[in-house]
Design a protein that fits this description.
- The complex is a heterodimer of chains A (417) and B (269).
- With 417 residues, chain A is an alpha/beta fold.
- Chain A contains 17 helices and 8 strands.
- The longest helix of chain A is centred in the middle third of the chain and has 27 residues.
- The N terminus of chain A is likely disordered.
- In chain B, β6 and β7 form a beta hairpin.
- In chain B, the strands form 2 sheets. In chain B, strands 3-2-1-4-5 form a 5-stranded mixed β-sheet.
- Chain B has 8 helices and 10 strands.
- Chain B folds into 2 domains: 96 residues, ATPase, nucleotide binding domain (Nucleotidyltransferase, domain 5, 2-Layer Sandwich), CATH 3.30.420.40; 145 residues, Nucleotidyltransferase, domain 5 (2-Layer Sandwich), CATH 3.30.420.40.
- The radius of gyration of chain B is 19 Å and the shape is globular.
- The chains are: A alpha/beta (417), B alpha/beta (269).
- Chains A and B meet through α17 of A and α2 and β8 of B.
């Protein structure tokens, strides 16, 4: 049988395997490969190479340059605090398709999400050696328990469970979060070997503000002209932002936006959809590409929320308090923020904002926060007659025929009267 | 306008030839035998011969089924859900729920008055939830496939299968044979287990009359009875239900061709 093949999204470098069977990418400590990347195509290709290598090439290169790195589990970590101490915050977003899970399966139940297993597998097999500390935001029971497991299996490297507030109405919420940030800082300062300086934090807030501004512009471009930016491109450009030093990523993203804004591609007869659910574990590139290949334009999504949680941190006053306030007041309504009374309005607002014709729930298998919200969202969509489709994914997906069939049916049900 | 619909299924290739999207000119089918492209081309030849038209007279070819991309000369391909829904609505205009039990999968669709898919659900990757399970039962119970339905109808006390996995279900059936359970009761148990799985999918999309059964198992009267008994409702079937997906593909092909002829030009880049 001949089926249309996906674009070649694996690269030669990704297939250049070492003895242990894993692809290996070596980067210069000054990241010149990304500083010099002149086109979006090159940036995307290099990002794919980095993602295919589960040994964290950017963190290794940073260490080669004498730095220390902190692994940050999804969804949100105040990266500004990590950066202000001279540490590199690196997003831990699973092991990808090349990582074989063997040891973690012996410790974790089969009913847990892929990212918990791949993260543990990487810790047990030394793939997280480039990291000096870890942050696990308490987004679900799985992330909480990973923090406990890491504390036991990697006792010489601090692991911190970050409590993020769920009560956004209380006057004490910002104060609570500031206290949590101070608790995190205590551990990070030990790793960095110095205390946090106000001027450093101010500079970090400005740098990350710039990164979020550009990330927001990319999302807006994708929403307004989805034919000029593919989902895979926008996803990879932002995914890179959690791996590279931000001083390298910000100018790269600016160059990418310049090129993307200059595109003028022909729009397809495609269905505009909002993608809901993949805020923690990330779908494979093949699945993301498939969604647009079958005739969808993704005009809103929850991928890489790390860079889009709040638009900017208001300057002035206590910077730690400003950072906490930005998180608390952010208009984010995804599965890891408990706002059950506003879920219906939120999904409808996102559909309106993207002028979307439907919603695709793309949830990681066994992801409780995402699956709980699907129930609330579905009711709201059904009441308004907005079509939706629910697909589940895992990190190591190999066949996409069932997903293709369901996606095609979804598109056809909207296209044909 | 003459449009052809080809349903390249896992077990069989079915074809339909329509005039003006309404009148059936010919229907044909052949086993896929692992080479659905060859079978599809033979079915197309048979359709043209049956309708007494020359090869070039088919204006539009629309494919569906798991091998829908396999025919390079197609004009359009549509998913099995979309085509089965249109075909079921064509055969029974008051259809609101379609159940498609094929060789590889069971699918359910809630449809609008026009046959547009409103909500759909298919079974997970599971051999016990599709027609292939019946084929396997046919082999190890040594009852020819086309005799399974009539034999099942003789059942007085169907022996339900509790296992949700095809391999374990087979073991359960073998145990039933060893315990001397009448063959007809075992066979009806096989159909009822499939019907119960289909019922779960039907509940997801919403059960409302009229219900129309399509797909390979529509030819088994045992399956039809099992489904009717399980859902407690009448289930539409006709002699052409077997070809519903191919008919739906031909209907959608006609709709697309009419649109293209009234508003020529590409619809997008």
């Amino acid at each position: 049988m001949t089926v249309p093949t996906l674009l070649q999204i694996r690269t030669d470098a990704a297939l250049d395997k070492e003895e242990n069977g894993l692809p290996r990418v070596e980067l210069a400590p000054d990241f010149r490969e990304f500083r010099d990347a002149g086109s979006v195509a090159e940036m995307v290709r290099r990002t794919q190479e980095v993602l295919a290598d589960p040994t964290f090439p950017t963190a290794r290169a940073w260490r080669d340059g004498g730095g220390k790195a902190v692994g940050c589990f999804p969804v949100y970590t105040p990266q500004e605090l990590v950066h202000a101490l001279g540490l590199l915050p690196v997003a831990l977003q699973g092991g990808g398709e090349n990582l074989e899970i063997s040891r973690a399966d012996a410790s974790l139940g089969s009913f847990l999400c892929s990212i918990s297993k791949s993260t543990l597998e990487m810790a047990l097999t030394g793939l997280l050696d480039p990291f000096d500390a870890f942050v696990f935001p308490y987004i679900c029971d799985v992330s909480r328990n990973l923090d406990g497991i890491f504390s036991r299996i990697l006792p010489d490297r601090p692991s911190h469970m970050l409590h993020l507030p769920q009560n956004f109405a209380s006057e004490s919420t910002v104060r609570f979060l500031v206290a949590e940030y101070r608790s995190l800082l205590k551990k990070l300062e030990k790793v960095a070997g110095r205390s946090l300086r106000a001027a450093d934090l101010a500079a970090s807030l400005a740098l990350f503000g710039e990164q979020r501004l550009l990330a927001g512009q990319l999302a807006a471009l994708k929403r307004e002209r989805p034919w000029d930016v593919s989902l895979v491109e926008s996803y990879l450009l932002l995914r890179l932002g959690g791996l590279l030093p931000r001083e390298v990523h910000v100018p790269l993203l600016r160059r990418a936006l310049d090129e993307l804004r200059g595109r003028n591609q022909k729009a397809k007869d495609a269905v505009r959809v909002v993608l809901v659910g993949p805020f923690c574990e990330q779908p494979t590139l093949e699945l993301l590409q498939l969604i647009e290949d079958v005739g969808c334009y993704v005009v809103g999504e929850e991928l890489q929320m790390l860079h889009r949680w709040y638009p900017r941190v208001e300057p002035g006053g206590d910077p730690l308090e400003s950072l906490a306030a930005a998180y608390v007041r952010a208009p984010v309504d995804i599965g890891v923020r408990s706002t059950p009374t506003t879920k219906a309005a939120a999904i409808l607002a996102r559909v309106r904002e993207g002028d979307a014709q439907g919603v695709i729930f793309l949830t990681a298998k066994f992801c409780e926060p995402a699956l709980e919200d699907v129930v609330l969202y579905r009711r709201a969509l059904e009441a308004k007659g907005i079509p939706y489709l629910h697909l589940e994914f895992e990190e190591k997906s190999t066949t996409y025929e069932q997903a293709r069939l369901q996606l095609e049916t979804f598109v056809e049900s909207i296209l044909f009267d | 306008m003459i449009t052809a619909g080809l349903d390249l299924g896992a077990g069989t290739v079915k074809g339909a030839l329509l005039e003006d999207g309404e009148r059936i000119l010919a229907l044909a089918s052949r086993p896929s035998r692992g080479v659905p492209v060859t079978s599809a081309r033979a079915v197309l030849d048979e359709l043209e011969e049956g309708a007494n038209i020359a090869p070039g007279e088919v204006d539009y070819l629309c494919t569906t089924g798991f091998g829908r991309y396999a025919i390079p000369e197609r004009h359009l391909q549509v998913s099995d859900f979309t085509s089965s829904a249109r075909g079921a609505r064509f055969l029974f205009p008051r259809t609101r729920l379609v159940v498609d039990i094929g060789s590889q999968a069971t699918r359910t669709m809630a449809v609008s008055e026009t046959g547009k898919v409103l909500k759909f659900k298919m079974n997970e990757k599971c051999a016990a939830g599709a027609g292939r399970f019946v084929e396997r039962c046919s082999k190890y119970l040594q009852v020819p496939l086309d005799e399974m339905g009539p034999r099942a109808l003789e059942s007085a006390h169907p022996k339900l299968i509790s296992s949700v996995c095809a391999v374990l279900a087979e073991t359960e059936i073998i145990n039933n044979v060893a315990e001397g359970v009448p063959l007809s009761d075992i066979l009806m148990g096989v159909f009822l287990s499939l019907a119960q799985r289909a019922h779960s999918l039907m509940r997801y999309v919403g059960i409302q009359p009229e219900v129309t059964l399509v797909g390979g198992l529509v030819r088994s009267n045992g399956m039809v009875k099992a489904l009717r008994d399980t859902i407690g409702m009448e289930v539409n079937i006709s002699a052409d239900s077997y070809y519903a997906a191919a008919l739906g593909a031909a209907i959608l092909g006609h709709a697309r061709l009419r649109k293209l002829r009234t508003a020529p030009g590409p619809s997008g880049g």
